[in-house]
Amino acid sequence: MIFELSHKTVYRYTAPVAQSHHLIHLAPRPADRQTVSRHTIIVEPAPAARTDFVDAFGNPATILTIEQDHSELLIHSRGQIEVTARPKPDLTATVSWSQLAAELGPGPGPHDLDLLQYACSSRYARPARDAYDYARESFPQGRPVLEGAMDLTSRIYTDFKYDPKATDVATSVSELLRIRRGVCQDFAHLAISGLRSLGLPARYVSGYLLTHPPAGQPRLQGADASHAWISVWAPETGWVDFDPTNNLIPSDEHITIAYGRDYHDVSPIAGVLLGGGEHKMDVAVDVVPV
Amino acid sequence: MTTQVEDVGAVSVDPFQSYAPRPNHYDELFGPGDIIRPHWKMFADLFRALPVDRQMSRVARLNRLVRENGIADDIFADLTKTDEPWKIDLFPVIFSTSEWAWLERAVTQRARLFDAILSDIYGPQDLLRTGAIPPLMILNDAAYLRPCREMGCGAGQLDFYAVDLARSPGGTWRVLDNHAETPAGSGFALANRVVHSQVAGDIFRALNGLRLAPFYQKLQAELMSRVNRDDPLIALLTPGPRHEDYFGHAYLARYLGLVLMEGGDMRVVGNRVYMKTLEGLKLVDLIVRCVEGGSADALELNPNGFLGPVGLMQAVRKTPNLVTNMLGSAIIENRGLGRYLPALAKQLLGEELELKDAPRWWLGDEAGRAHVFANFNRMIIRRAREGTGRPGGAELGRNPAKLPQEQAAALRADIELNGRALVAEEPVGFATTPSWTPQGLKPAAYAVRLFVARFGDSYHVMPGGIALTVDAQTGVSLSSSEGQTRDVWVTSATEVSNHVSLMRPPIEVSGVQRAGKGLRSRAADNLFWLGRYTERADSTMRLMRAALTRMRDEGAESQAGEAVRKALAAILAKDYAARKTPPAKEPLKAVESLVVTLMSATDRLYSLPSTLESAYRVASVLRDRLSIEAWNTLQTFQTNPVWRGEATPGGILDIIDTLDQGVLTMAAFNGMIAENMTRNPGWRFLDIGRRMERTARLSELLLALFGEAQDDDSETSGLLFTLEASDSIITFRSRYLFAPVLSLVLDLLLLDETNPRSIAFQLAAVDAQLGALPQASQSGVQTEEQRMILELLTAVRLAKVSQLAQVGAGGSRPEFKALFLQIADGLPRLSEAITRRYFNLTEDELRRVYSRNTPRP
After folding, report:
1. What whole-number distance in Å separates Cα of residue B416 and Cα of residue A198?
2. Is there a contact between B676 and B630 (Cβ–Cβ < 8 Å)?
3. Among B548, B528, B829, B803, CA closest to B662
4. What are the structural domains of chain A?
5. Where is average pLDDT lowest: A127-136, B316-325, B790-799, B830-839?
6. Nearest to B357 by CA among B114, B137, B541
7. Considering only Cβ atoms within 10 Å of each terminal Cβ, which end of chain B, N or C, has fewer?
8. Residue B291: per-residue pLDDT
9. What's the CA gap between B758 and B735, in Å, rounded?
10. Nearest to A205 by CA among A224, A187, A222, A223
11. What's the gap between Cα B591 and its chain centre?
């Protein structure tokens, strides 16, 4: 499927911002089954410095510095991406989770460091007792690792309510387990934290999801949004994505922007401002199949 | 050879005779057979020769010096708390020439090894890929900073390294901990040496001890050589005065001539780092990093870490050697590494590792966990890497044998879940070294930290260090709850070169500099407030002294009583809390209660303890700008409980004595500032602060006492009191032979610009200072604050004293009141205007914004 993507973010500040630095992850990364035919990022006011680079996780990233007083900032990401459908992986044909956990890490190697880093603790997704207890139910002894991951995905979908007001960017996994509501980012952190507590590699995926308007209604302009889900590894399949917010294995309606250990590694826009007072943010995302 | 260190007086007791280390337990002083080791012999001889009273007086002097130098701990700590005092033992640890030669070789070998390991971890990562280092140990550690890898710094990673060492009871050395994040701790070692040599320098010289100064001179030259610019600006980046190591940072910065900066003092523009100064932004050439690497750039590293300037990583990409140690260097502090170092030394250096780590198990793999669980109760469990670098601050760790059963079980579960972040080891015990106690010489378990720096291509060990008494029973690290430290002496077989002065850079790097490195906006702000607070304390003390003297001389029932009460109440009235308590009716009681409040209340903004505390706090963050004498003078207020409001002030006479001393001390401080501080913008701000405060206090006093006319006797008494409080009574008497009247007093205290106590004098001085500041003098146009001060000064100059003294309807003085209200209103506005122009850069508030992943399902 080919998508036309537009992701427009406008910040409005109550007081002028004297200087701002932004680290942005908006350009879709190269990924299996995904081809980016074009992509641009427009910024207003024009930044004094702009650095495009590939970050430590292989994602395209950009650092912007704006040195002039401004009370509005526009960041507009546009592009065309093709995603091909993936055949449904055979989840039961994967190694048992405990065997995988035991084999990762020790010994003379060679070790796949890119894989191992996703089994390690990170700021928002660290091994924890409560996350372990929650995830362990999906992983009885000997269960194939991806079968367990699917079960965990479904349980999160069932046990947690989607509520954008319940959490913010800094909400911890423990807090989420207590209040039982949150957004895709929180669900992804819970799943990753649980998997890592079991010794398994899991990564955070930032991206977009094609949304379908209710039957008979037109698609609303700008009504889509960025999305987050997880990816779990098994030696037989490589990385396989799971979407706990929608209880499914992503195929050709998910566009990948970036992989990281958690949200902090791949936050779409993270900025530090000098001044600025209060701020208001407006986001409009359109993911349109062509 | 005999060396005399002091006059030998009374016969002394031999402290070495009763010294009794544990048998078969390595001791630094006594070798086998309880014989003093050869390299201690001369120390023992010289110490024995001291009369007992001299021995004791040296201890007392040492304790006093520790207090006065402020090594004690961080300055924002409650000084009355005594839980972690910094103490220096009269006895150093002494190392022989041969022992030191071995330690030097072994310790620099480790520095070379860690440098090579860092090159790999932030480079090709072959060591991780092949499992020479367990990859999960590194990848799981938050000190491994991923974004630092693609910067390709290459070799040249480790410039500062410190190692904590202990000798086992059997006599072999082992490594307790490695420090690669910052050079912190060496500031403490330096300060210890400076203090200790003031009481033991004679013995040190007689022993031919190696001095520290040449090491630091080389370090200074090394830092200069990294920068390709004349007159470079080298920063020492500190987390700030609230950090426990701040003393060490400030000390090191002053010693090396670096500019002490916090992240907020810097700004990154165009991928270069600048210091924010009064004159604008100044390029920073090199940053000696004393902050945690992960918190050095909130944009790319820890999003909540604002210890460095935002955008630092970008600046480092452009200038890879901008920061030392490199960001991310702390990864080699991981305690799990020790077990792998012997093999790594062979692989990377082709050498046998000389100095091994304490036997330790990383709990991130099955083998480690199995061993530790099998011997659980003998183990101490600790974090694999600890944040603190403060000598003696390492955590003690958890021993399962000492935990209640359910906590031990929880610890076991924690290891299973989070073992990659933990290590375990069995306590091995510590060798002892003599400690001087009131009960005589006692053996004490100890550990030592040594410091290494890279000069050019090679590593060099500072010939000294810092040793601490540790708990032999529970300790596995350099943790010292008692804070008992000691200097480390290295004896030299060869002749030691002449004494090199400590606080002076070698001529080849000093160069003539008139203007300094520019004044940080934050320092300007603090100097302004230092001026205000010290003047506030001074004027309050003078006012109280004048009040009490009059009470003493004339009795409370005299005319003076009411004036005194009003004057004192006026100070406290500025404090909102005070208004709730109405003053007692009877003058004596009222004055007494006001005096006690001013003297001892810690919860009143304008009381002496609060004012002195504020002065002390701003002074302590300015320590790199104040002379040691000025700082010590100000400290006497802090070390005396009376000034902290903790001792009962006593009767009137006691208080007058105390105030006399206080006024003298403050005069000494001001004298040192006047005589020793260069007339740079920093001094100007201090002076502006002081003069504005003096104007404010005198105006308040005059307004409180003479706004409303009173009968002649009361007025005369009030005038005498005012003259006395403002130190102008002698001037008045020399001009007029009769009792004071308001118009003449106003002429002297308000208008007379030759009287350094008059308001016109203060305002004219402020005007001159503002005109000389960098931002004012550049253009011909007057700045906002220059116009404001001119307005006030002109109003004062145009005033006619006879009209001011005129009493209008209702018994009040309308012109008098109008003028002083104008001053009372104008000063705070002036203060705000100065803040806006000069200190505003420090008001910048950084904030974070994010976008979230939030779909609408």
Report:
1. 10
2. yes
3. B548
4. 2-84+267-289 (2.60.40.2250), 97-265 (3.10.620.30)
5. B830-839
6. B114
7. N
8. 94
9. 15
10. A187
11. 38
* Nearest CB neighbour to B849, from listed A55, A185, A271: A271
DSSP line for B503-528: T---HHHH---SSTT--BHHHHHHHH
Residue with tokens 């894989």: A115
User: What whole-number distance in Å separates Cα of residue B189 and Cα of residue B176?
Assistant: 18
For B30-44, what is the mean pLDDT? 92
Dump pLDDT digits (tens) for B281-318.
Answer: 889 999 999 999 999 999 999 888 889 999 999 999 88
Please report the pLDDT score of residue B810 as a whole number. Answer: 85
Distance CA A94, CA A147 (A): 8
Round to whole Å and give the CA distance between B159 and B226: 12
B298:A272 CB<8 A: yes
- Please tell me chain B's helix, strand, coil percentages from 3-state DSSP, rounded to the nearest 5: 50, 15, 35
HEC profile of B319-332: CCCCEECCCCHHHH
Structure confidence at residue B472 as a pLDDT band (50, 70, 90): confident
User: B313 φ, ψ to 5°?
Assistant: -60, -40
- pLDDT tens digits, one per residue of B377-426: 999 999 999 876 677 777 888 899 999 999 999 999 999 999 999 999 98
ipTM over 0.90: yes
- What pLDDT is recorded for position B69? 66
Residue of A nearest to B363 (CA): A106
Residue A125 contacts B where some CB pair is shorter than 8 Å = no
Residue A117 tokens read as: 């880093």
**Is B68 in contact with B408 (CB distance < 8 Å)?**
no
Residue B524 C-beta-side C-alpha neighbours within 13 Å: 29
Instruction: Tokens 């002494």: give the residue.
Output: B94
Quote the pLDDT of residue B71: 63
User: Residue B509 has what pLDDT?
Assistant: 39
From chain A residues 9-38, the ones with a CB under 8 A of any chain B CB are 9, 11, 18-19, 21, 23
The answer to whether the CB of A265 falls within 8 A of the CB of A228 is: no
Any residues with CB less than 8 A from the CB of A281 and at least 6 apart, and which? A9, A10, A11, A12, B849, B851
- Tell me the torsion sign for CA atoms A115, A116, A120, A123: negative
Give just the sign of the alpha carbon dihedral B554, B559, B563, B568: positive
d(CA B522, CA B524): 5
Indicate the residue of A108, A245, A275 with minimum beta-carbon distance to B844. Answer: A275
Higher pLDDT among residues B153 and A273, named by residue:
A273
Q: What is the mean predicted confidence (pLDDT) over B617-632?
A: 80
Long-range pairs of B836-839 with CB within 8 A, sequence gap ≥ 24: B836/B784, B837/B775, B837/B783, B837/B784, B837/B785, B838/B278, B838/B521, B838/B524, B838/B525, B838/B685, B838/B773, B838/B775, B839/B521, B839/B522, B839/B524, B839/B525, B839/B528
List, for residues A224-243, the tens digit of each pLDDT value: 888 999 999 999 999 999 99
Residues in chain A with CB shorter than 8 Å from the CB of B120 are none
Buried/exposed code over B597-630 (b: 16+ C-beta within 10 A; e: otherwise): bbbbbeebebbbbbbbbbbbbbbbbbbbbbeeeb
How many beta carbons lie within 10 A of that of residue B267, not counting itself?
21
**CB distance B848–A272 less than 8 Å?**
yes
Q: How far apart are CA A181 and CA B435, in angstroms?
A: 61
B136 touches chain A (CB under 8 A): yes
Q: How far is A124 from chain B (nearest CA, A)?
A: 12
So what's the pLDDT on residue B449? 95
Report which residue type is found at A104. L
Token couple for B246 = 């701040």
N residues, chain A: 290
